[in-house]
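Recall that a protein's primary structure is simply its ordered list of amino acids. Everything else, from secondary elements to tertiary packing, is in principle encoded there. The following example makes that idea concrete.
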Amino acid sequence: MESMLAPGRGARKEQGGSRSAADDAMPGAGTIVWGPDAPLDPDAATTAGLLAADPDSAHPRPRRTPPAAAVVPLAIEHVAIVACDGSRCIFPDSTVLVNAQGVIERIGESDALDPYIPREYRRIPGRGRFLMPGLVNLHAHGFSDGALGAFGGPKVRAFRTFRHSFLGRTARARRDLDFARSMMAEQLAAGVTTVRTGGDMGYEMVALRDAVNAREMVGPRIVASGPTIGTPHDRRTSRRMLDASTLEAARDSCRRNIEAGVNCLSLSITADAGDDIDVSELSHVQMTERQIRAVCAEAHRRGLLVAARCLSSQAVHTALLAGVDIVEHGAALDRESLRLLRRNPLSLRGWSALVPMLFEAQTRATLPQSELGQSDAARANARLVCDGVAKGVRQADLADVAIGVGTDSGVTFMPQYAMWRELDALVRFGGLTRAQALHCATLQGARILDIERVTGSIEEGKYADLVMLEGNPLRHLRELESPTLVVARGVALWKPRPRRLPELDRMLDVI
């Protein structure tokens, strides 16, 4: 692995047509900072003002509503850079220069670079603070803030019934884009500069991705999956999934997403842990290996990654045999699955990755059943899944498997701004060190999405996807809860404030 800061750059080292994701990651237009004279002040700015949906369009697209902004290169001075390379490496008293294209231009010791900082660069004081790469969330949803009712409870059932009624379908296209826009703003305010969606209501995330790439709005880099592809047996999401009940249906659903412009595909091949089903049905693989292989082959021909929800060891093994690139949630891993994760001849790049979503599994297994609206059978399933996910993380770590970080944000009790909780869960329940967890959430996540050439680490020539913190995340991961500064492709957000859910936060704090 290349060092974030190569020797000789002046910093000291001390111990402490389809579209792929890569196509949408290359450097582009100028750097936007809120206001030409915006101070680094807690009250100076808030979360990014993104785009609204066009209510008059049958296929809503973002309309431009940018805040007042200026193109301003940045000089982040006297900051301690956290490498996030799996070690506890910190580069003290460093300066990072970001040019007018939003790309990191130079990195070095502050005293050495100070005489060479151009006058037009906005100087941002970093003394006593810590700078790390922006976070990469490999599984999030834009359809909810995480606070909607309970699993299987009456509020969720009523919401689903409305969404799929005639009135709900009429309103949905207009609302999904606007709501997803606000959810991506929450992700960005929490330091997430790259998001891969794990199943969408429609193609609203494709529209948002294109708007972000065109600099029509400020937001995280988006890798859009479109609607999940699965079978009617998936009771939780069957009405918003694309059909994969037959081989031809699976291929057609895959092509439909590709034609809509997605740059990743999402499969659901097992039931959900929140379903009130027998444990034997939970482990049942709902798509055949042949069906999964057909989707993977079609996607891989277009250079697209395929992710699959797998909640049993059998499902993980079947998915990997079929060529799935990203195993989501996961379970206990047998020797053959570990071998396929490291070297998978049918995957797009010859290897596959694990994205466990361990904190989400913990919420289902530990929060009060009354709050979750959970039956005894669903609770038993949740505990089984949670134990399997944690065991799979420990096995993958020992086997040197690529592990990424996803939150499942948007499902009930998983707020958009709680990326740090997943990192904390990987340490407490998965056995990773804090340094490993930070690596999984930055450079490893970028590598899994095949965009490590342009993001994931603080290196000259890469996009300025950065998070500045008041404290050292290698000591306390909760420092990520309140970033001082978030920079996304050179766009600086001062003191971003996600809309917090205090009652939910109090519940999650006990896990």
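The mean pLDDT is 84. The longest helix spans residues 166-189.
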